[in-house]
Design brief:
alpha/beta; binds farnesyl diphosphate; single chain; about 240 residues; 6 strands; Undecaprenyl pyrophosphate synthetase
């Protein structure tokens, strides 16, 4: 009922989220940043469940950028532990709810146990068709574009072929890697090297809510805002084209 009212063809929708504000959420409570990331992990669980219930096709979450390695070692390792424990606790749940989990980004700088947890999660959830969940870890959109260019540098290629190569370069699977709705929490309004190619015609939605406070209702508000927009992909509005 809710999903039909909310969005007309949810299964073909690709929503991507830049989950920002964990640190400020913790600081506002006088807590170390790690608590903010932990609360951010709880928000991930809530939002993934909501996305599956709403029947959204693809959800891509920006969990760790290539540039995030420059954060203090303590914070980096606590984030890596969080990703690992998320995969350990959620893989079976995802499989039983038809959620297909896919990690995008570089793998070679992750620890062997994390790489193994990613591999296992992708195998166990591979038959899911209710929701494609992409988690971006050690992800850089610029790197994915460079890698794609390297892959097909000397072929004569089309825009579609290049688009597929960008998706392949970062292990981004699914019916379409184009982002329809890009949400950023935490009050900042920038893309931070996330899905630059795939967001060519994405509708952008910024909210001041810190990521750990982001609820299902906030996702629904963003989806309503998306639905109210007229997407023209560079064309004229229908009335003006007559
Ligand atoms: C940005 O907030 C957030 C991150 C760099 C990490 C995102 C990670 C999570 C939401 C944790 C769990 C994720 C998964 C997939 C289990 P920030 O730290 O830059 O916040 P700030 O701008 O307030 O300092």
């Amino acid at each position: 009922m809710m999903q039909r009212a909310l969005i007309s063809q949810p299964r073909s929708l690709h929503t991507a989220i830049i989950m920002d504000g964990n640190g400020r959420w913790a600081a506002a409570r006088g807590l170390p940043r790690g608590y903010g990331h932990k609360a951010g992990g709880d928000a991930v669980r809530r939002v993934v469940q909501a996305a599956a219930e709403l029947g959204l096709g693809t959800l891509t979450l920006y969990a760790f950028s290539g540039d995030n390695w420059q954060r203090p070692e303590r914070e980096v390792s606590s984030l890596m532990r969080l990703f690992h424990s998320y995969l350990l606790s959620e893989t079976e749940k995802c499989a039983s709810h038809g959620i297909k989990l896919n990690v995008i980004g570089r793998r070679d700088r992750l620890s062997p146990p994390l790489i193994e947890a990613v591999r296992r999660a992708e195998v166990i959830t591979s038959r899911g068709s209710a929701l494609q969940l992409n988690i971006a870890i050690d992800y850089s959109s610029r790197d994915s574009i460079i890698n794609a260019a390297r892959l097909i540098a000397d072929a004569s290629f089309s825009r579609e072929a290049f688009s597929r190569a960008v998706a392949d370069a970062m292990n981004l699977k699914g019916p379409s890697s184009d982002v329809d709705l890009l949400i950023r929490t935490g009050g900042e309004q920038r893309l931070s090297d996330f899905m630059l190619w795939e967001s060519a015609y994405a509708e952008l939605y910024f909210t001041d809510k810190m990521w750990p406070d982001f609820e299902r209702a906030d996702l629904e508000i963003a989806l309503r805002s998306f639905q109210a927009r007229e997407r023209r992909f560079g064309r004229l509005p229908e009335a003006a084209a007559i």
